[in-house]
Amino acid sequence: MAMGADGPRKRATIKDVAQAAGVSPGTVSNALSGKRRVDSATQARITAAIERLGYVPNLAARGMRTGRAGTIAIFSSMPTAVAAGAARLGFLMEIAASAAIAALESNTALLLVPPIEDPVRALSTIAFDGAILVEPETEDPYLSLLAARGVPTMVIGPATEDQPLAVRIDYRRMAETLFDHLHDVGARDILLVVGQSGRASNIAFREVFSQRSTAHGLPGQEIVLPEAEAERGAQAALRAHVAEFGAPDAVLVPIDAMATGVMAALRELGLRVPGDVCVATRYDGIRARSESPALTSLDLHLDQVAELAARGLVGALDTGAGAMVVDAPEPDLLVRGSTVLS
Amino acid sequence: MAMGADGPRKRATIKDVAQAAGVSPGTVSNALSGKRRVDSATQARITAAIERLGYVPNLAARGMRTGRAGTIAIFSSMPTAVAAGAARLGFLMEIAASAAIAALESNTALLLVPPIEDPVRALSTIAFDGAILVEPETEDPYLSLLAARGVPTMVIGPATEDQPLAVRIDYRRMAETLFDHLHDVGARDILLVVGQSGRASNIAFREVFSQRSTAHGLPGQEIVLPEAEAERGAQAALRAHVAEFGAPDAVLVPIDAMATGVMAALRELGLRVPGDVCVATRYDGIRARSESPALTSLDLHLDQVAELAARGLVGALDTGAGAMVVDAPEPDLLVRGSTVLS
DNA sequence: CATGTGTTGTAAAACGTTTTAATGCACTAT
DNA sequence: ATAGTGCATTAAAACGTTTTACAACACATG
C-alpha cells in the first residue's frame, strides 16, 4: 500500500464506505438496499460517507451475488428487422424505444439485440435476466434457445397455449379491419399479397381473406411470396398478375416492404391509386408513410404493446410469477390517400 | 448434497466442467478464453465436458473479475428523442439500430438508454463499459457525469478539442449544402427557422446562414424558437412572420419537428410548396418523408456514422487507446418535392 | 431473577470467474 | 551431471457484493 502519488484512484468499494462510516460492510449493504432496518443515525453516517467517497456500487459484483443482471434483451428473428437505411426503423425499433422507457422505470435496462447469423453466441455473450421476443416464428430458434436456457421470455405475437408470458396480437382482427375497409370503399376484386413463411400473421391474413372472400362471393385471389426479396418479388409478381388477370380493385398487402413493391408495379403499369386500385397495408411505418399517396394502414398502438411487455416481464422477474398473458389493444384503422381520395 | 429428485438443476459452473474433464478450473478458463495454450488433448476433453454439462459461463462473475460488463450504452439528451408515436423513430433510434449490429460483431451488446428525468440514477443502475452519446449539448449533463465517472465516451456530434473519442459531425457543411440548394433552385428570400438552445447544430446553421446571406446580399431573416414546443411553435411563428413580412421564397428549417409545423402553417395560409415556397430540412426521417410533398433533406449516412462510433468505442475499450477522432461521411442532398416539382 | 422478544449490528461464507506465482516435467545446451 | 528453457498445468488468491447465522443489548414479561 501507500502507493504514493496520483495514479488513477481506484474506485471506492463498500468496504471503504463501511470503514469511513465506522460500520461493517453488511450494514452498508442493508442501508443501500433497505432490506433491513438500520438506525437512522448510522444511516446518516453511511450516506455521508457514500457522498464523500463518491461510492458507486459495482454492479457486476452485485449481479454475481444476486443472480440478476438488471437487464432485459429484445430480440426478433424477423429478417425485415434489419432492413437497410431508414427502413431499419420498423416495428422492432418502435417497440424497443417504448420498451426501453418502460423498463428503465423499473430500474432495468434494455439490450438491443439485432438479428444475427449466430444466435447461440449472442446468448452466451450477453447477460440478461429476461427476453422480449417480437413476432416469433412457429419454430423460432430464439424461442427454443431461450426456453432451453430457462430464460423467462415475453412474446409479443400470436397466441399460443404453452407460452406463459405474452402480449397477444390478434392478427385476424387486423386482417378483418383492413379487408372490411377495402370492401367498404367499394372494392370487390381484392387481391391478397402475402408472405410465404409460417409466421402467424401470414396464416391469419390468408384465413381471414379466404373466409371473407367466400362469404361475400368474391374471387379472392392471392399471391404468396417468400419474404426474402419482399419488395422486388412483390413488384414482379404483381406485374405478372395484372398481365394475366387484369388489374384488381384493391390490393391487401400486410408486409410493408411488399406494399412498396406493389406501389412500384402499379406506377409502372400506369394504374392510379386509389382511382384504379386501392392499397392497404398493416404497419404504419416509414414505408407506408413515404409512399405517395400514403398507405392506409393500422395504428397498432405499439407504444402500449411495448409497455405491457416490458412491465409484464420485469414484474414476472421480480415476483417470480410464472404466467402473465394480456391482449394487445385493438388496432385502429388509419385511412390515407391509398384508399380514399383526399 | 444428494438433494434427491428433480428440482431445478443448478447451472453447471466452471468447477463442474473442470472436474468432469479432470483438470483444474484455471485450465478450463484458459481453454475458454484462449489466453494461454492448452494441450489439444485436454482441450478436447474440456469442450466435451462443456457440451455434456451444457455449461454456460456466468457473465456476472466474469465481469466482476475482468471489470468489463460487455455492454456499451447509447444515450441522448435530445428531448426530441422521446417524441411520441412513430416519430419516436428518429435520429437516435436509427443510430442505435446500426450501432447494435456493429457492437454485437465485437461481442458487445448495446444498451438503449432513453432520456429520463434522473440521469444519475440511470448511470448507477446500469452496468456498461463505455457510452455513445448522440448530439451532446454544450454543457451536457450526461457528458459531465460520464466523464466524472471515468467512462470512456464516444461522442457523435460537434468537434470539440478535449473530447478524445468522437465521430465528428460537420453541421456547417449540412447548412451549406441545404442553403446552396435553395439558392440554386432560385430562392432569394430565404428564411431560417431554428432552435434556440446552445446545441452546436443551431449555432452552425445560424452562422452559415448569416454568412451566406450576407455574401449573396440577401435579407437572411431568421426565426429562433425554443425546441420544446417545436411543431406548434414553428407553425405559429411562421404564421406571424408571413402576416408581418409576407411569404418568403424558401424556408430552411433544420429540425424536422419544426419543419412539420412550417408545412402546416403554409398549408393553412394557402401557400403552395414548392410553387410559392420551398422547404428544406436536415434529417431524412419519418417526418420529412411523410409530408406531402416530401421534404428535401440530407442523407447523413447514419448507418456508417453509427458503425464508426461503435467500432471506435469498442476498439478503444479493448486496446486502452485513449483517443480516436474520425469525421462522419459527407452528407448527400436528397432532393424531394418540397423544393423541386416532380 | 430468569426468560423471552425485538432491534442493530457484525463476522464470515458464499457467488463463479480470472489471474498470479509456483510446480513438474521434458528437453537442450553447456 | 548441471543448469537453463519452455511448456502445460495447478493451487490459491483475489474481485465486491449480499446474506446467513449469530451476538449484544435493551426492554418487557412472567
Automatic annotation (TrEMBL), chains A, B:
<dbReference type="InterPro" id="IPR028082">
    <property type="entry name" value="Peripla_BP_I"/>
</dbReference>
<dbReference type="Pfam" id="PF00356">
    <property type="entry name" value="LacI"/>
</dbReference>
<protein>
    <submittedName>
        <fullName>Regulatory protein, LacI:Periplasmic binding protein/LacI transcriptional regulator</fullName>
    </submittedName>
</protein>
<dbReference type="InterPro" id="IPR000843">
    <property type="entry name" value="HTH_LacI"/>
</dbReference>
<dbReference type="InterPro" id="IPR001387">
    <property type="entry name" value="Cro/C1-type_HTH"/>
</dbReference>
<keyword id="KW-0238">DNA-binding</keyword>
<dbReference type="Pfam" id="PF13377">
    <property type="entry name" value="Peripla_BP_3"/>
</dbReference>
<keyword id="KW-0678">Repressor</keyword>
<keyword id="KW-0805">Transcription regulation</keyword>
<keyword id="KW-0804">Transcription</keyword>
<dbReference type="InterPro" id="IPR046335">
    <property type="entry name" value="LacI/GalR-like_sensor"/>
</dbReference>
<feature type="domain" description="HTH cro/C1-type">
    <location>
        <begin position="13"/>
        <end position="56"/>
    </location>
</feature>
<dbReference type="GO" id="GO:0000976">
    <property type="term" value="F:transcription cis-regulatory region binding"/>
</dbReference>
<feature type="domain" description="HTH lacI-type">
    <location>
        <begin position="12"/>
        <end position="66"/>
    </location>
</feature>
<dbReference type="InterPro" id="IPR010982">
    <property type="entry name" value="Lambda_DNA-bd_dom_sf"/>
</dbReference>
<dbReference type="GO" id="GO:0003700">
    <property type="term" value="F:DNA-binding transcription factor activity"/>
</dbReference>
